Amino acid sequence: MSDSAPAIHPSSSKSPSVAVIGAGAIGLGIAWRLASAGARVDVFDQGEAGRGATHASGGMLAACIETEPGEEWMLPLNRESQRRWPAFAAELEAATGLSVELRTEGTLYIGHTADDMARLRFLHEFQRGLDLPIELLNGAEARRREPYLQPGVAGALFSPEDHQVENRALSRALHAAVLKAGGRVHEHAAVTRIELRGGRAAGVWVGDTLHPADVVVLAAGAWSRGVEGLPAAGRPPVRPIKGQMLALRMDPAAPLLRHVVWTPTTYLIPRLDGRLVIGATSEERGFNEDLTAGGIFSLLEGVWRAVPGVAELPIDEMWTGFRPGSRDDAPILGTGEVEGLVYATGHHRNGILLAPVTADAIARLILTGETDPVIAGFGIGRFREAA
Ligand code: GLY
């Protein structure tokens, strides 16, 4: 079946039954949209809802500042989702009464040395060439925005449209929204196998129990490739990319930072409750969950260099998470060769940013058979074509 195949579910019923594998921001977002439209939705997760990459992430909505050469083709998708974020957050908050703490101060990317500034100038030229609203600041201007930056900061890029949400609040709100809309979320219910009948997806197996469904959505993040039952070509080429992170505790009444701040080696994300989230390593270590001295040292060293005042702050938490990285670092969205199976995985560094566009486009695909042009280039078929 091609990415634009019209028949996602076999009946012409307006209310298909859908099994979503994975209760992260992606799976829950899709389930919310589907349940709100009257579909019968069951979401399955191997653990607690929202405790995978969604829990581990930083919640940055960085469509602009993170764009590097070679990633231009992802920009329309990233920017479209960024554009949808304020309405998505407002709708979610109205549906649940729960805040997702969307903060709109923007992002600074600072440099310390002449080499750092050469790189920032290059990025600035490149990003301006893509019409991205990025400003180049000198050191004094950067410190006017963030007075606790180290006094010798050489300069910064300022990205006024790259914001953040509190990712853990987001998963709580999405979980509540799915339930309110009539969907079901099954926690500690690992899907071991997708049931295929006559070559089409017909449900999911949890232990010895088959849950039949018209449509199966594979949104299991870094675990997506491990779900059994699919032919080799149907297994998404997604692997875990480990990230170590930590959080410090600031005084919420006198926070050291207000913007998201990137340094040459780390990023810092100040939360409204005073947590300062710091990330992240990027490691090819499979599902290894170890926190390492070297990993945490590199994060703390980068942060201390940028904001020396952090040395006084207590450590609140340290954790690891697993980004779902596809072979080309872009998400896998839409249908493939297995009828009735829809992919929504491989979001790599951008799962929270891409939650709104993924939820909207995948729900639309399932409910109407229409492929939103913004996801058209992101089907699993691109890997076969590239082989
Ligand atoms: N988006 C930030 C990260 O993946 O570390």
Describe what you observe in this structure:
There is one protein chain. The chain is of the alpha/beta class and 387 residues long. The protein folds into two domains: 17-66 and 168-237 and 327-386, FAD/NAD(P)-binding domain (3-Layer(bba) Sandwich), CATH 3.50.50.60; 103-161 and 239-325, D-Amino Acid Oxidase, Chain A, domain 2. Helix content is 28%, strand content 25%. It is built from nine helices and 19 strands. The protein has helices at residues 25-36, 53-56, 75-96, 114-129, 139-145, 167-180, 293-306, 355-368, 381-386; strands spanning 17-21, 40-44, 60-61, 107-111, 135-138, 155-159, 163-164, 184-186, 191-197, 200-206, 209-212, 215-218, 238-249, 260-262, 267-270, 275-279, 315-326, 332-335, 341-345. The strands form four sheets. It has an eight-stranded mixed beta sheet with strand order 5-6-4-14-15-16-13-17. A six-stranded mixed beta sheet has the order 8-2-1-12-19-18. Strand 9 (191-197) and strand 10 form a beta hairpin. Helix 1 crosses helix 8 (355-368), helix 3 (75-96) crosses helix 6 (167-180) and helix 3 packs across helix 8 (355-368). It is globular. The chain starts with 16 loop residues before the first strand and ends with a helix. Mean pLDDT is 96; it is low at 1-7. It binds glycine. Glycine (GLY) binds at residues 58, 60, 243, 279-280, 323, 349.
